[in-house]
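user: can you give me the structure for this one chain? tokens are fine.
assistant: on it. calling the predictor now.
[tool input]
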Amino acid sequence: MDLTGLPNAPMIEAGLRDLRAGRESVEALLVMIGAPRLRRMGLDVPPKTVDHPEHRLYELVASSDPDAAHSRYNALIRALTSFERAAECVSH
């Protein structure tokens, strides 16, 4: 699937690269959260490497800015959802 032009595609592409390289990053955790839906769209998402990626993402975001963790986490989830919705339109 060509991700060019989809909202937040660079974030998803970075997450896929990080997962393939075995790196835990905000982007990789975000892709893990969206993995079932992303796979249904035809993306090759590596197997989950972290249990409860939602919790780990929140912890990672909170470690750099605890006061903004909740809003930053929600913004990341909205970015993932935006990408998924746009990608579903392209893949169907």
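assistant: here you go. The radius of gyration is 13 Å. The chain has one domain: 9-91.
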